[in-house]
Design goal:
Blueprint: H1 14-26, H2 30-34, H3 46-60, H4 67-76, H5 85-95, H6 102-130, H7 136-153, H8 162-180
Helix pairs in contact: 1-3, 1-5, 1-6, 3-4, 6-7
Protein backbone atom coordinates (compact mmCIF):
# COMPACT_ATOMS: atom_id res chain seq x y z
CA UNK A 1 0.00 0.00 0.00
CA UNK A 2 1.32 3.45 -0.93
CA UNK A 3 2.16 5.89 1.83
CA UNK A 4 -0.64 8.33 2.46
CA UNK A 5 0.23 11.88 3.38
CA UNK A 6 -2.79 13.46 5.10
CA UNK A 7 -1.28 16.92 4.67
CA UNK A 8 -0.82 16.78 0.90
CA UNK A 9 -2.66 19.30 -1.24
CA UNK A 10 -5.60 17.85 -3.18
CA UNK A 11 -5.32 17.84 -6.99
CA UNK A 12 -5.97 21.32 -8.38
CA UNK A 13 -4.56 23.87 -10.81
CA UNK A 14 -5.25 27.39 -9.65
CA UNK A 15 -3.38 29.01 -12.54
CA UNK A 16 -5.57 27.23 -15.08
CA UNK A 17 -8.69 28.23 -13.15
CA UNK A 18 -7.54 31.84 -13.43
CA UNK A 19 -6.87 31.47 -17.17
CA UNK A 20 -10.38 30.12 -17.69
CA UNK A 21 -11.94 33.05 -15.85
CA UNK A 22 -9.77 35.56 -17.68
CA UNK A 23 -10.67 33.93 -21.00
CA UNK A 24 -14.37 34.13 -20.23
CA UNK A 25 -14.09 37.81 -19.32
CA UNK A 26 -12.07 38.57 -22.47
CA UNK A 27 -13.97 36.58 -25.08
CA UNK A 28 -17.76 36.44 -25.22
CA UNK A 29 -17.72 33.10 -27.08
CA UNK A 30 -15.45 31.37 -24.56
CA UNK A 31 -18.11 30.49 -22.00
CA UNK A 32 -20.30 28.89 -24.64
CA UNK A 33 -17.43 26.56 -25.53
CA UNK A 34 -17.07 25.22 -21.97
CA UNK A 35 -20.51 25.51 -20.40
CA UNK A 36 -21.20 21.81 -21.01
CA UNK A 37 -17.74 20.73 -19.86
CA UNK A 38 -17.12 22.69 -16.67
CA UNK A 39 -19.44 22.91 -13.69
CA UNK A 40 -18.94 25.50 -10.94
CA UNK A 41 -18.15 22.90 -8.26
CA UNK A 42 -15.00 21.96 -10.18
CA UNK A 43 -13.22 25.14 -9.11
CA UNK A 44 -10.88 24.56 -6.20
CA UNK A 45 -10.78 28.21 -5.14
CA UNK A 46 -14.16 29.34 -3.82
CA UNK A 47 -14.04 32.85 -5.22
CA UNK A 48 -13.16 31.41 -8.65
CA UNK A 49 -16.36 29.39 -8.39
CA UNK A 50 -18.29 32.55 -7.45
CA UNK A 51 -16.94 34.46 -10.46
CA UNK A 52 -17.70 31.56 -12.79
CA UNK A 53 -21.24 31.26 -11.42
CA UNK A 54 -21.81 34.99 -11.97
CA UNK A 55 -20.63 34.73 -15.59
CA UNK A 56 -22.74 31.61 -16.06
CA UNK A 57 -25.90 33.27 -14.74
CA UNK A 58 -25.39 36.23 -17.07
CA UNK A 59 -24.68 33.91 -20.00
CA UNK A 60 -27.86 31.90 -19.38
CA UNK A 61 -29.86 35.14 -19.31
CA UNK A 62 -28.41 36.08 -22.70
CA UNK A 63 -26.44 38.96 -21.22
CA UNK A 64 -22.76 39.75 -21.78
CA UNK A 65 -20.31 38.11 -19.41
CA UNK A 66 -17.44 40.54 -19.82
CA UNK A 67 -15.32 42.22 -17.15
CA UNK A 68 -17.70 45.14 -16.58
CA UNK A 69 -20.92 43.13 -16.51
CA UNK A 70 -19.59 40.38 -14.24
CA UNK A 71 -18.07 42.94 -11.88
CA UNK A 72 -21.37 44.85 -11.75
CA UNK A 73 -23.33 41.62 -11.13
CA UNK A 74 -21.01 40.65 -8.27
CA UNK A 75 -21.33 44.16 -6.83
CA UNK A 76 -25.14 44.08 -7.07
CA UNK A 77 -25.23 40.71 -5.30
CA UNK A 78 -22.81 41.83 -2.57
CA UNK A 79 -20.14 39.33 -3.67
CA UNK A 80 -17.51 41.62 -5.18
CA UNK A 81 -15.50 41.99 -1.98
CA UNK A 82 -15.78 38.25 -1.33
CA UNK A 83 -13.97 37.55 -4.61
CA UNK A 84 -11.20 40.05 -3.92
CA UNK A 85 -12.79 43.16 -5.41
CA UNK A 86 -12.60 44.63 -8.87
CA UNK A 87 -8.79 44.52 -8.69
CA UNK A 88 -8.86 40.72 -8.47
CA UNK A 89 -11.10 40.45 -11.52
CA UNK A 90 -8.93 42.94 -13.41
CA UNK A 91 -5.88 40.84 -12.52
CA UNK A 92 -7.56 37.75 -14.03
CA UNK A 93 -8.13 39.61 -17.28
CA UNK A 94 -4.64 41.13 -17.33
CA UNK A 95 -2.97 37.71 -16.89
CA UNK A 96 -4.89 36.14 -19.77
CA UNK A 97 -3.68 36.50 -23.32
CA UNK A 98 -6.56 34.69 -25.05
CA UNK A 99 -9.19 32.01 -24.65
CA UNK A 100 -7.82 29.85 -27.44
CA UNK A 101 -7.18 26.80 -25.21
CA UNK A 102 -10.13 27.28 -22.89
CA UNK A 103 -11.66 23.92 -23.86
CA UNK A 104 -8.54 22.04 -22.79
CA UNK A 105 -8.24 24.18 -19.65
CA UNK A 106 -11.83 23.33 -18.70
CA UNK A 107 -11.13 19.62 -19.17
CA UNK A 108 -8.05 19.93 -16.96
CA UNK A 109 -9.99 21.64 -14.15
CA UNK A 110 -12.70 18.97 -14.39
CA UNK A 111 -10.06 16.26 -14.23
CA UNK A 112 -8.61 17.73 -11.03
CA UNK A 113 -12.11 18.02 -9.58
CA UNK A 114 -12.92 14.40 -10.37
CA UNK A 115 -9.65 13.32 -8.77
CA UNK A 116 -10.64 15.20 -5.59
CA UNK A 117 -14.04 13.51 -5.73
CA UNK A 118 -12.36 10.13 -6.20
CA UNK A 119 -10.19 10.74 -3.14
CA UNK A 120 -13.28 11.66 -1.09
CA UNK A 121 -15.14 8.58 -2.33
CA UNK A 122 -12.09 6.45 -1.51
CA UNK A 123 -12.12 7.72 2.07
CA UNK A 124 -15.84 6.94 2.34
CA UNK A 125 -15.25 3.44 0.94
CA UNK A 126 -12.46 2.87 3.48
CA UNK A 127 -14.84 3.90 6.27
CA UNK A 128 -17.47 1.49 4.91
CA UNK A 129 -14.88 -1.30 4.87
CA UNK A 130 -14.08 -0.78 8.53
CA UNK A 131 -17.75 -0.75 9.57
CA UNK A 132 -18.31 -4.41 10.43
CA UNK A 133 -21.89 -3.73 11.54
CA UNK A 134 -22.94 -3.39 7.90
CA UNK A 135 -23.39 -6.50 5.74
CA UNK A 136 -20.57 -7.02 3.24
CA UNK A 137 -23.01 -7.08 0.31
CA UNK A 138 -24.32 -3.65 1.34
CA UNK A 139 -20.76 -2.32 1.70
CA UNK A 140 -19.89 -3.56 -1.78
CA UNK A 141 -23.07 -2.09 -3.27
CA UNK A 142 -22.49 1.29 -1.61
CA UNK A 143 -18.85 1.31 -2.73
CA UNK A 144 -19.86 0.54 -6.30
CA UNK A 145 -22.45 3.34 -6.25
CA UNK A 146 -19.87 5.86 -5.09
CA UNK A 147 -17.51 5.01 -7.94
CA UNK A 148 -20.36 4.81 -10.48
CA UNK A 149 -21.59 8.27 -9.49
CA UNK A 150 -18.12 9.65 -10.27
CA UNK A 151 -18.15 8.18 -13.76
CA UNK A 152 -21.46 9.92 -14.39
CA UNK A 153 -19.99 13.32 -13.48
CA UNK A 154 -17.25 13.31 -16.07
CA UNK A 155 -17.91 14.82 -19.48
CA UNK A 156 -18.93 12.17 -21.95
CA UNK A 157 -16.58 11.89 -24.93
CA UNK A 158 -18.11 11.84 -28.37
CA UNK A 159 -21.24 13.82 -27.53
CA UNK A 160 -22.24 16.32 -30.18
CA UNK A 161 -23.85 19.68 -29.48
CA UNK A 162 -27.53 19.81 -30.46
CA UNK A 163 -26.93 23.05 -32.38
CA UNK A 164 -24.28 21.35 -34.55
CA UNK A 165 -26.59 18.42 -35.21
CA UNK A 166 -29.46 20.72 -36.23
CA UNK A 167 -27.26 22.75 -38.55
CA UNK A 168 -25.97 19.58 -40.23
CA UNK A 169 -29.49 18.14 -40.52
CA UNK A 170 -30.93 21.29 -42.08
CA UNK A 171 -28.01 21.40 -44.50
CA UNK A 172 -28.71 17.82 -45.58
CA UNK A 173 -32.42 18.55 -45.94
CA UNK A 174 -31.68 21.55 -48.16
CA UNK A 175 -29.41 19.44 -50.37
CA UNK A 176 -32.09 16.76 -50.72
CA UNK A 177 -34.74 19.39 -51.40
CA UNK A 178 -32.63 21.04 -54.13
CA UNK A 179 -32.12 17.67 -55.88
CA UNK A 180 -35.73 16.50 -55.79
CA UNK A 181 -37.64 19.66 -56.63
CA UNK A 182 -39.66 19.46 -59.81
CA UNK A 183 -41.23 22.36 -61.62
CA UNK A 184 -44.83 22.96 -60.69
CA UNK A 185 -44.53 21.29 -57.29
Amino acid sequence: MADFNPHSVPPQNIEVEELILGGILLNQDALGRIVDILNPEAFYVKFHKDIYEAALKLYRQGKPNDFTTVTAWLQDHHLLEDVGGGEQIARLVARTVSAVNIDRHAELVMEKYLRRQLIAAGHEIVDLGYDTTVELETVLDESEKKVFNLTQKRPQEGLVLMADTLIDTFGELEKLHDKTIESGI
